[in-house]
Amino acid sequence: MQPTRPHDSTEANAEPLRYYTAPGLMTDPGDCAAMLVDLPSDIAALCTVVQGQLIHIFWAERYGVTPDETRKKEVEIRQVSEMLTCIRAVDDRPLTTARPLEQRLIGNCRDFSVMLCATLRHQGIPARARCGFGTYFLPDHYEDHWVCEYWSGAEQRWVLVDAQLDAFQQRALSINFDPLDVPRDRFLVAGQAWQMCRSGQADPDKFGIFDMHGMGFIRGNLVRDLLALNKIELLPWDGWGLIAQPDDTLTGGDRKLLDRIAALTTAGVDRGYDEIRALYRQDARLTMPATWPEAHHLT
């Protein structure tokens, strides 16, 4: 499948598509922009490029790679510009050349998604990272996960892509769907998970990773997804405000706000675009702390 630029967008979603075409704080390649020039435009080929530069920290040993503690810290990199700088420092060949497994940047699902998102935006394709839960990692479980979502002008819809799932992982996980068009019931954006658990349709303890699960965990991903829709793609463990607030301190007003965020970030995101942007700007509990190193780049 080849993504297309949003020249044929409708007036209703024109502004959101323009917004998601431009790089954000985390996806701006900065001084490494030249590395994204002349990459393929086909979505499958772009995923192959991303997979050739990154290796997932929790899958590394299954590929025969045992990173030391210094290398593991690469997973803490937030910005694509720094990721690209690290990749270039190790191997300055074009990104279309897959790095040896042991030389690939250590990352996680968020990094695969954000790297693909940055690459698509650089090509003028509307794209955004999404935070939520995958159903395809463990039986009867919703695993903490990120994917990328891009706009298909030809199909007039947003398409979910799991750039992490290379051929090796597809075989290991017995994937029975196309990772380039992930069905909406195989990856749930966090707002859908929140709604399912709030209504009693699902058990919140089945959502999470390792020993971390429950409504508090879902709430964290819900806010992270809202922030990603504002082009602030957090690390999975970043948190403040409504993310870090203990469950027993949430007020009725807090829960009403979270319900509203869930509604806005599920179906019809573009229709709620103005409110999604306004919530981030107006509520300090949702805004990146000014003390973060990246915050001084915000305008």
Q: Could you spell the SSE succession in H and E letters?
A: HHEHHEHEEEHEHEEHHHH
Shape: globular
Helix count, per DSSP? 11
Based on secondary structure, the structural category is alpha/beta
Measured by DSSP, the beta-strand proportion falls in: 5-15%
> Rounded to an integer, what's the Rg over CA atoms?
18 Å
Domain count: the total is 1
Residue-averaged pLDDT, rounded? 93
Proportion of residues in helical segments: 25-40%
Poorly predicted runs are none
Major sheet: 6 strands, mixed
Cα(first) to Cα(last) distance is 35 Å
What is the number of strand segments?
8
Could you characterize the architecture of this molecule?
This protein is of the alpha/beta class. The protein has one domain (about 5-295). Helices cover about 35% and strands about 15% of the residues. It is built from eleven helices and eight strands. The strands form two sheets. Strands 3, 4, 5, 6, 7 and 8 form a six-stranded mixed β-sheet that branches. A two-stranded parallel ribbon has the order 1-2. Helix 7 runs antiparallel to helix 8, helix 7 (about 190-200) crosses helix 10 (about 250-265) and helix 8 (about 215-230) packs across helix 10.
